[in-house]
Each structure stands twice: as structure tokens, then as C-alpha cells.
């Protein structure tokens, strides 16, 4: 029996003793689905657990998870960081994201678990698995509530510092009971969100995810066209290439990092998407393709938004569009931007809900003898309806609760995106980490903990500079 080389383990290839190398590779490429089939049935095209997910569907679903509500906060980071440092930070966070996702994929292939919590549990036991579930549930619940709140603000307006901002419905039809926040969000929840969250396979969301990314590109196109128009007419704002330390401190720079960490934090959906791909090797291709798409979208939105509004850019760029709608063309663009953004969020909602539902089910119904959630219709429907109702009622009852979740980007999302995957590589329960892997894992943990601590401290006790807001 030949000795197993560590590099072969690091890449998930461990030859068998009595089989040839090709058969060993085939065995390692086979991955158990997240939702195992019953013993007495076979996969069919309609089977919600069959591994026939498409590569393009994975790219769209990953991209949609990343391009959430945070796109409106990216231009404000340009004001704090400057153009060049902002681009460097975007690329750096994307690279770290790629490293940590690769850790997750390799340790999932080497282990027996097919969920995020289960993978961490293999390295850190029950407490580690529970920590992941709590972080996922806290993060995704907060994000979904925030999506509802932003939708309510866009459609029905809000009141901030004594100033009333009318929503699209109120501008069109006036203030009535049927243009209120509660009724408008109920209609959105029933007719847009409910049909999508009832889909049992994450790959089934690929079309809605594709539309969501298309709407983000529409927003980029609008911003870029308005910025070029302003540039040609001499009305564009001057850009800050580097930070202006007369207005911000070095600590203020760290408050922008949670915005990008939140934006690139799709780790909660790595396992569901991977489980439905016919070939797990396609997952890393989908991840890197999606990262390239999102880096381009984030930088384009940040650059053109900053070029258009300059230092007057707000933490939520929608406010800037609202302030520049005193002409008919401006009002039309404002309406298009807000409507496309609202629909974009409504289409992002189901992909985030998928991770929340899966982790709550894993927490409450961890009995291995129970049927998979997608195959247990009463459990699936009741849990789906309960979560949709909960997020709706909290968003309507406490529309300012999103302040409570501002620190998610510096806490639970950092743990899910960087700390947990790096800790698994350091623990190395399967003996597949190379020295390079462990060095990178240590660097990732130091960067994550250091930047998060500084960001939290600055947000709580900072200089009071106009900082970018951590919006999901």
C-alpha cells in the first residue's frame, strides 16, 4: 500500500488500496445530496432532491445572494476610502471570500456532513454546530426583516428626523389604507415572495435570481448614464482618489469593511447550492464567476454613484435620487430606480429565506430518522409560512428594528464568512490542510477579528464623521 501524499489529501484525492486511481476519483466526485431520498424511491425529473442543478443557475443564485440591499451603501464607502483604496478593499474581500469558500468545499468533500453546521460540527462538536446555526438564523432573519423594511420605505415612504418621505404608491395614488405599509407589504409577500419561497429546490430560483441580477445591472446602467451626462455637461462631482484625513480618521476607514463583508457573505448558501449540482467541481467555477460579476457590479455602482453625487452621497443612495427629482425626467428616473430596487429585493428574499428555513429545520428537527424537509410537505409548508409571517409582522410592527442589525456585518456575518471556515482549516480534522492553508487561515482570522473590532468600536465611540452605514 503506497503512502498517501499530503498534497493529494489537500485536493481531496485519496487513492484506494485495492482500486485504480480513476475509480477512486469517481468515488470522491460523488457527493451525497443535502436532502437524501427515501429508500424506496428513485430520482425523477420532478424530484426536489435530484442533482440536476445547472452551473448557470448556481452562478445566478450565488450572485443574487451577494448583490442584496448593500449595493446602495457602496457609493458612500467611496467617499470615505477614496476610489483606489475602495477598489483594493473590494478585490481583497472577494479574494478572502474565495479562499474561505474553497476551505468549505474541500472539507465538505472530505467529511460526511452536507450542511454548514454539520461541517463545523465535525471539527468542533455540538457547540460548534450550534454556533453556526445561531449565527445563520440571526443573520438571515435580520436580513429578511431589513428587506421588508426597505421595501416598505420604497413603496410607502417613511419619516426621518421630522421629514416625511412619500413612497411610490403614495406619490401615485395618495395616502389611503391600501397604500399603507402593512397592506402593501402583505400584497408583496403573498403574490411575489410566497410563490418563490414555496419552491423546494434552490436551483428553481435561478430565473428569479437572473432577473434580480438584471435589475442590478439596470441600476448600474442608469447611474452610469446619468454620471456621463453630468460629466459631459460639466456638472459631475470631483472624485476623491485617496482618503481625506481632514474629514475622516484612520479608524473610520474600517467602518466600510463590514459593508463589503456583508455584500460578499453568501457562505450560508454554499451547501444548498452545491448539493444540487451534478458535479461538485462546478461549484468552485460558479463561485469564482459570481465573485467576478459582483466585484464588477460593486465597483461600477460605487464609482458612478460617487461621480454623480460626490460628497453629498448618502449612506443609502436612494435618498440622493429622491433629492434630485425636481424635474419630470428626474422624477421618472427616480421612480424607475426605486421600483427596480424594490423588485430586486423581493427577488433576493427567497434565496436568503432558503438558508434560514434549512437551518431552523436542522436545529428543531435534527432526528436523522425524519424525512428530508423538501419531502415532508406538512413540515415544509408550515415552517415556510411561519417564517414569512414572522418577518412580515416584525417589519411592520417595528420598522426601525434595522438599527439593531447594523452590527451583523461586524459580528455574525464575519464569523460565517471568514472565522468559521478558517478555523476548520486550522483544526484540520481530515488532515488535508497544507502549511500554506494554515498560514492563510491565521491571516484571515486576524484580519477578520481586527477589522471587526475596530469597526464596532468606531461605530459606537467613533469620531462622529459621516460614515457609511452597514446595510444588508
UniProtKB/TrEMBL annotation:
Signal peptide: none
Any one Gene Ontology cellular component term annotated for this protein: organelle membrane
Major subcellular location class: membrane
GO MF: L-amino acid transmembrane transporter activity
Region listing for Disordered, in residue ranges: 1-47
Residues annotated as transmembrane: 55-74, 80-105, 126-150, 182-199, 211-233, 253-273, 285-309, 341-360, 380-398, 404-426, 438-458
Parts forming coiled coils: none
UniProt KW keywords: Amino-acid transport, Membrane, Transmembrane, Transmembrane helix, Transport
Residue intervals of the Amino acid transporter transmembrane domain: 52-456
InterPro entries cross-referenced by the UniProt entry: AA_transpt_TM
Pfam families registered for this protein in UniProt: Aa_trans
Membrane topology type: Multi-pass membrane protein
Location within or outside the cell: Membrane
Bias type Basic and acidic residues, positions: 1-11
Xref: PANTHER family: AMINO ACID TRANSPORTER, AMINO ACID TRANSPORTER AVT6C-LIKE
Listed name of the protein: Amino acid transporter transmembrane domain-containing protein
